[in-house]
Amino acid sequence: MSKTVFIKDTGTAGKDRTRDFYGFFLGVIREKGLENEVIPVRVADIGLYNQGVVVRVVPDNFVYAQVEESDVSLIVDSIKTGKPYSAKLVKPVSKQLRIVLRNCGVVDPESLEDYIAHDGFAALAKVLESYTPEKVIQEMKASGLRGRGGAGFPTGMKWEFTRKSQSDQKYIVCNGDEGDPGAYMDRGVLEGDPYSVIEGMIIGGYAIGASKGLFYIRAEYPVAIERIEKAIKRCHETGLLGNNILGSSFSFDLEIRLGAGAFVCGEETALIASIEGKRGYPSPRPPFPSVKGLWGRPTCINNVETLANVPVILHKGADWFSKIGTETAKGTKVFAVTGKVRNSGLVEVPMGTTVEDIVYGICGGAMRGKQVKAIQTGGPSGGVIPKEYFGTKVDYESLQKMGSIMGSGGMIVMDEDDCMVDIAKFYLGFCVDESCGKCAPCRIGGTQMLKLLTKVTDGRGTQEDLARLEQISHAMQKASLCGLGQTAPNPVLSTLHYYRAEYDAHVNERKCPACKCANLLQFVIVQDKCVKCGMCFKACPVGAISGSRESGYLIDQTKCIRCGQCFEVCKPKAISRS
Amino acid sequence: MAKLTREDLAKIKQDAVEAEKNWIKVGYSSCGIAAGAQEIFNVLREEARKHNADIEIKKCGCVGMCSAEPIVEVCVKGLPRVHYGKVDRETAVKIIEDHVCGKLLVNDHVMGIQG
User: What is the predicted pLDDT for the residue at A52?
Assistant: First the structure.
């Protein structure tokens, strides 16, 4: 059988040498007469970054980094013998571990048979055959699984509380109201592996003693809804839902409720109100939903990712699961890495992996020669982590110590062009839009803070404004009714803590160091550098640039909206931004 | 369909293992669909029919590399199993002609190597 050599230049400096090395390999292979035994392939992404030319040999699975022209002949020789060429050999460790996403991209989400072929419903069969509900709860507690929606409450304990509540009817609810900007882990799971969430819910229902479950999914996820609907229908047809599941005495049913997209409805008490057909207002706890929830009955609300963990834990055992992760956080976490990063997408890593490994190791760092500045985790309830602290491990406690939170798993990468005041304003603006308006600290505090931040980004801010921002933040944290208001000031406090200098520059010098805040910017054409190509003239969306290829160009400051498009397209860098 | 029993689960799994043949999977979640997975899926099917290729073309969820969609995973016996990213019409045709029929991997689009 022939062997394949995958080739990719992962260096960032200068020209991409992938094609050159492909040529070298082809030449050497021909010279040695190995055309039928060794086949080179140029690759778009080989999973390593900034390591020069990387070569991977399959099926031997040897990986070589920093390969130079002189190594090619020796590598080809080593392929023939089947022994590694040790001088450039590297052992890349896979940083990802897929538990929740085990079937995403593997099974056909619309095929029950495919899911079963990948160990689907094996856990359910085992549970219904030989586990009492108490045993299931015990396993879940032993596994150390904590809620993946953000707060990190131990799932086993939540199930136990609901089990112990006495009632004629109990409910289990899957919270698929994923609302954080840039986060789509739950969508990925619901669309890619709907049956695993359903299996998790059936097991959960069995454990807490519920005969009915509800999916609460936001209406903005049409593909997810369609697949869950189809999956539920198939489960009904095959007796995986309904009466006497898999020949046992257990009966369970599932329904879908659609959320209209209000962020606050991800909060469990507001979610319950929404399902009941009321306005999505949160209510004070206690009583907790596990005692008095949906229609006044004990209700257990779990996140999509939490539920997708359940079948694996019961299939492979709590022991296996509790060996993954850190002391306080077991298992893995899915992150949606987005923003100014080379490979954006869903990443699943064991708890305790460093931010550095995620941003650089898996996602390949910043785009187009820019520098990563910070990441933002936890959405509008979280905070930023500057690059200097990328050694931080991702788990509930470490992130909290950094002034951020784990949240549901959004991770937005920001580079040098992002202004931290602007970021804080964006997240706060999101919370102001989404505030339900029931309690004053959130409704009034949020609006006032947004006004102050707008003042700062417009260049009208003062030091007193910054002090007031902090003051209102603390009041909101203490006095708001639900999690939305209590955590809304977090992005502001966190950026104030780490990037005070940027706030000061806006206030004292009326400057935006990242050149982002439009009202503090001015674009001017430097006539000495201008080559009169007319690119800026064409790019300007508001016609603020006038002139011709003969006379040169000028920007009319009264018309300019400071979008920066002329700056981006100017090849000789003749447009100054200050 | 009749109600499933525990024995049925085991049998379905066993059958699937035995029926395993060459396949192509197209990422068909929101990210893939938005990037044009539907067209790629149709092109792959059409080309496979044209070349009379013995290959099963299936849909799957998002594998995680959303920025590289549309993603197509190809498993042909005797060749490494790979993910192709940013697959356009032209690449989809090449995947059938070169990879599936010619047993030669397509250059410049491999994004993930499963070994």
Answer: 85
Could B30 and A238 be called an inter-chain contact, meaning their C-beta atoms sit closer than 8 Å?
no
Q: Does A367 touch chain B (CB under 8 A)?
A: no
Within 10 Å of residue A87's Cβ, how many Cβ atoms?
Answer: 12
Cβ-contact B66, A346 below 8 angstroms:
yes
Residues A161 and A212 in one domain: yes
For residue B14, being part of any structural domain is answered with no
Total structural domains within chain B: 1
Contact B12 A116 (CB under 8 A): yes
ipTM of predicted complex: 0.92
Looking at the DSSP bridge assignments, the partners of residue A166 are none
Chain A partners of B21 at a C-beta cutoff of 8 Å? none
Q: Which of A55, A90, A125 is the last residue of a domain?
A: A90
Q: Are residues A343 and A491 in the same domain?
A: no
Q: Check whether residue A410 and residue A493 sit in a common domain.
A: no
pLDDT in tens, A307-340: 999 999 999 999 999 999 999 999 999 999 999 9
What is the rounded distance in angstroms from the CA atom of residue A140 to the CA atom of residue A174?
17
B21 part of contact set with chain A, CB < 8 Å = no
- Closest chain A C-alpha to B88 CA, distance in angstroms: 14
Determine the pLDDT at residue B15. 87
Considering the domain architecture, whether residues A222 and A185 belong to the same structural domain is answered as yes
For residue A337, the distance in angstroms to the closest alpha carbon of chain B comes to 10
Say if residue A68 is in the same domain as residue A9: yes
Tell me the residue range of the domain where A359 lies.
332-415
Assessment of whether the complete model's pTM goes beyond 0.80: yes
Whether A362 and A310 map to the same domain: the answer is no
A105, A113, A343 member nearest B62 (Cβ): A105
* CATH number for the domain harbouring residue A358: 3.10.20.600
Instruction: Decide if B73 is inside a domain.
Output: yes
Any long-range contacts for A559-567 (C-beta under 8 Å, 24+ apart)?
A560/A523, A561/A518, A562/A518, A562/A519, A562/A521, A562/A522, A562/A523, A563/A518, A564/A515, A564/A521, A564/A523, A565/A539, A565/A540, A565/A541, A566/A523, A566/A535, A566/A536, A566/A539, A566/A540, A567/A523
With respect to residue A472, please indicate whether it lies within any of the assigned structural domains.
Answer: yes
The mean pLDDT of A184-201, rounded to a whole number, is 95
Question: What is the rounded CA–CA span in Å between residue A16 and residue A22?
Answer: 11
How many contacts does A have with B, using Cβ atoms within 8 A?
149
* Cβ–Cβ below 8 Å for B78 and A1: yes
Contacts of B109 in chain A (CB under 8 A): 44
Per the structure, how many domains does chain A have? 5
Residues A163, A294, single domain; the answer is yes
Is the Cβ pair B9, A59 closer than 8 Å? no
| Mutate which: B9, B56, B84, vs A, most A CBs within 10 A | B9
Compare CB distances from B4 to A56, A117, A238 and report the shortest one's residue. Answer: A238
A460 with A402, same domain? no
